[in-house]
Amino acid sequence: MAARKSERQMNLTIVLLAARGYLTRHQIRRRVEGYAGLSDSAFERAFERDKDDLRRYGMEISTGQNAEWAADEIGYRILRSEFELPPVHLTAEEAAVVGLASRAWAAHDLAGSTANAVRKLSLDSEAGSADLPWDPVVTVPEHVFTPFMEAVNTRTRIRFDYRNSRGEVSRRVLEPWGLSQTKGSWYVTGRDVDRDGRRTFKLDRVIDTPRTTGAAGSFDLPPGLDLAAIWAELADQPARSAVLALRPGTEAVLRRRGIDTDHPRPDGLPEDWTLLEVPYSYEPGLIGELAAAADNVLVLAPADLRERVLERLTGVTR
Amino acid sequence: MSSLQQVPRLLALVPYLVRHPGARVADVAVDFGVSPEQVRRDLHVLWYCGVSGMPDDLIDINMDQVDQHGVIHLSNADFLSRPLVLSPTEALTLVVGLQALRQVAGPDAVGAIDQALAKVRAALGTRSELPDQVVVEVRSAADRVRATLDEAIARQRRIEMEYQPDHVLESQRRNVDPHSVAVRDGYAYLEAYDLDRQGWRSFRLDRIVDAVVTSIPAGQHGAAPSAPGRHWLSALDDADPVDLWLAADARWVAEKYPVEATRAATAEDAASAGVEPHPDDLVVTMLIAEPEWLTRLLLRLGQSARVLNADRWRAETTEAAERARRAIAMHQRVGEASGRVEA
């Protein structure tokens, strides 16, 4: 079944590409072997789906009219200038890094897409060495990532059930603008249609397989959208600073993030403890980190952070 | 194999075969990341593709050569001798790989990566904004450390580094022979032979505080093990399972760390943990190789975590509680809070 559909779509591609002018649906139906023997309605359904798929593969299908046609006749063709990849020349160094990057998807379904891209780009490029010591494997949540990426690519709305950090489940419809991975977790950002506002969701918390809804190209990116700036908020972009004292020789990770501070040393702090200012943006993460350090760290400020660390520690003693 | 995967491959395969007459099935399979059987199935689909009623223009493949010698000769494919533009998916998967590589490769390779990214972007034509819509950020090391690792790998030298593992309190001096840098789950790792531990180890790059190349040549330690997968903890020999009750606000533990099993908490679990039952609570089973790691996890989670198989982990739960008491006492003694610090 898949083989017959693949063959039909290849034939449709060749027919549209070989056409000297626009072809009517009737002409296409006669020239593409896979459409023979289909009823009128079955042909219409198959042709519509095939056109959608061809566009998904990256093809531009032009619609228009030949000069001698009646006013209501619509035809289709693929212009060679829009179909063909212009020659891309990669130097040996560039080809080498492209080859490495193509291994990023390892055993994932998307590995095939990267392999296609590399084969297309290699046609007019130099050969690259494969002997480089880097192995950048990208991991994505299975079953969830690909539908979101397709929705981003095609600008299609996507519907999914989402469990928030408090465990509450809700159904969402999103116009997805982009996907970002930070600290090992993938996020999707877009316009939440029902709530009419920008939202970011963690893909790990999406339940079951998301489904696209509505037509491709059904929304535009907001003018002036700066996804990099939105995602910078997700990463640890410091907004506040904590003042800490650290026991000598401990907690090197906190110590490395610390900067010098002119905060006064409190009375009773041993001389060999280091006073530091540590910038942070995600308070729950820092509270956990400071609680884990327990009596290796003295939290001096801000006061609410200090209280919440002590609350957390009290929870361990019960 | 669905048409959504097969057709884009066929469209890349035809120009490839036009360019490489007599290509071997086995080589094509490697280049396209599929099995030789799949290559043969692909060829059967391509064979006689073309415009119906124009038999002279159908794609022709010498199937005898394919079947008997594993060699591919294809003709009459002039309509498809140039590749289709990159599909959004093809471009994005490649861009994401290049982004990940850019954050772990040595500084010398960054120029070539940026050039390649620019060429992919240019090839996208009207969709040139796509590479900004999917972005990976890899937790890696400072340029200075990456340059050091790169130099040591290239010159096959031992390095001495200051490393901060997440399950011990103090940073350590480690002498390692570096092999490669890999990315897994958004974090970069140095794969290296650890001279102090006499074995292959992975080191998170963002925990390498500093590194210097020594004058000592790297030793021969046999083949590096292939990269461990997601369940790396279960590969460790002395790991023991802990059954951990988690409140709803600690569910992230099950997402962040490798867990052996996850289930909803029952009324008996709640009773055993000494808490009121709640429908969103979880019980996870994790393998613990470093007891210190569990102690710190318990401190981190406070009242949102309880060990259910308490007898096995008595020392760790007691240690966590004692450290917490000492920390609280210390805060009561020293440095009452002196106001908010502005950034």
Write the topology of this structure.
The complex is a heterodimer of chains A (318) and B (343).
Chain A: H1 2-18, H2 25-31, H3 40-56, E1 62-64, E2 75-77, H4 80-83, H5 92-101, H6 111-122, E3 134-136, H7 145-154, E4 157-163, E5 169-182, E6 185-192, E7 197-202, E8 206-213, H8 227-234, E9 240-246, H9 252-257, E10 274-280, H10 283-293, E11 297-301, H11 303-317
Antiparallel strand pairs in A: 1-2, 4-5, 4-8, 5-6, 6-7, 9-10, 9-11
Chain B: H1 3-19, E1 23-24, H2 25-32, H3 36-46, E2 60-61, H4 63-69, E3 71-72, E4 74-75, H5 88-102, H6 110-123, E5 134-136, H7 143-155, E6 157-163, E7 172-184, E8 187-194, E9 199-204, E10 208-217, E11 240-246, H8 252-256, E12 261-264, H9 267-273, E13 282-288, H10 291-301, E14 305-307, H11 314-333
Antiparallel strand pairs in B: 1-3, 2-4, 6-7, 6-10, 7-8, 8-9, 11-13, 11-14, 12-13
Helix pairs in contact in B: 2-3, 5-6, 10-11
Structure description:
- The complex is a heterodimer of chains A (318) and B (343).
- Chain A is of the alpha+beta class and 318 residues long.
- Chain A has 4 domains: 2-83, Winged helix-like DNA-binding domain superfamily/Winged helix DNA-binding domain (Arc Repressor Mutant, subunit A), CATH 1.10.10.10; 85-137; 145-234, SH3 type barrels (Roll); 240-317, no CATH class.
- Chain A is built from 11 helices and 11 strands.
- In chain A, α10 (283-293) packs across α11 (303-317).
- Chain A is elongated.
- The termini of chain A are far apart.
- By secondary structure, chain B is α+β, with helices and mostly antiparallel strands.
- Chain B folds into 4 domains: 3-80, Arc Repressor Mutant, subunit A, CATH 1.10.10.10; 88-132; 143-217, SH3 type barrels (Roll); 232-331, no CATH class.
- Chain B has 11 helices and 14 strands.
- Chain B has helices at residues 3-19, 25-32, 36-46, 63-69, 88-102, 110-123, 143-155, 252-256, 267-273, 291-301, 314-333; strands at 23-24, 60-61, 71-72, 74-75, 134-136, 157-163, 172-184, 187-194, 199-204, 208-217, 240-246, 261-264, 282-288, 305-307.
- Chain B has a 5-stranded antiparallel β-sheet with strand order 9-8-7-6-10, with helices on one face. A 4-stranded antiparallel β-sheet of chain B has the order 12-13-11-14.
- In chain B, a hairpin with a 4-residue loop joins β8 and β9 (199-204).
- The model of chain B is unreliable at 227-236 and 337-343 (pLDDT under 50).
- At the A-B interface, α1, α5, α6, β3 and α7 of A face α1, α3, α5, α6 and β5 of B.
